[in-house]
Amino acid sequence: MMIRWSRRIVLALFVSGVAGWFFLSVQESFAEEMTEDRAYALAEEFGLDVGEVDEEIKEVLGLTKAEGVVVFGVIGSSPADRAGIKVKAVIKEVDGKDIRTMLDLGKALEKAMPTQNFSVATFEPAGIDDQGVGGGLNFHFVRVEKD
After folding, report:
1. Checking CA distances to 115, which of 68, 94, 109, 129 falls within 20 to 30 Å?
2. What is the pTM of this model?
3. CA–CA dist 66, 52 (Å, integer)
4. E strands within 19-68?
5. Alpha carbon separation from 75 to 48, 79, 95, 109, 126 (Å, rounded)
6. Nearest to 139 by CA among 69, 91, 71, 67
7. Beta bridge partners of 137
8. Tens digits of per-residue pLDDT, 77-123?
9. At a CB cut-off of 8 Å and minimum separation 6, what does 97 contact?
10. Do 48 and 76 touch, CB atoms closer than 8 A?
11. CA 72 → CA 50, 57, 69, 115, distances in Å?
């Protein structure tokens, strides 16, 4: 009788473990789902008005590829503003994660912002005021201050 009871306990633990694993897997898959609307909201929370680089923006900024996320505006006193991110910068990386689309940016910000300390790499194209000096990759260190 004792052996059967033990087998039942083992079976119950196994089944509950599998159910728990399944629940966590399903929960993680929902947490990983990123939409463009959510990505834009996270960018705004960070302090940026952004959009994907398309062919027109590529031409205006003199980029080689229509890839990345361009900064249209920076909200004053936001983490992005304090980090020194500038208008017309193209976000290339957030905390080591390559950024090619809005969804990439949303996923990266979702992971990085709760840490309160992360880096953002931007490409800032050369402008008229730069007297012909080429643009370059800049690293911005972000520190999120909580009230």
Report:
1. 68
2. 0.72
3. 8
4. 48-52
5. 6, 9, 21, 16, 22
6. 91
7. 123
8. 999 999 999 999 999 999 999 999 999 999 999 999 999 899 999 99
9. 104, 107, 108, 111
10. no
11. 5, 11, 10, 25
Q: Encode pLDDT of 22-69 as tens digits.
A: 544 544 544 558 999 999 999 999 999 999 999 999 998 888 889 999
Rg (Cα) of the chain, in Å, rounded?
A: 22
Amino acid type, 111? K
Residues 6+ away with beta carbon under 8 Å from 86: 71, 74, 122, 124
Helix (H, G, I), strand (E, B), or coil: what is residue 128? Answer: helix
**How wide is the angle at C-alpha 59 spanned by C-alphas 105 and 132, nearest 5°?**
100
How many CA atoms does the CB half-sphere of 73 hold within 13 Å?
6
Measure CA of the first residue to CA of the last residue in the chain; give whole Å.
61
**Rounded to whole angstroms, how far apart are CA atoms 118 and 96?**
9
Taking CA 55 as the corner, what is the angle to CA 131 and CA 43, rounded to the nearest 5 degrees? Answer: 85
Separation CA 23–CA 31 (nearest Å): 12
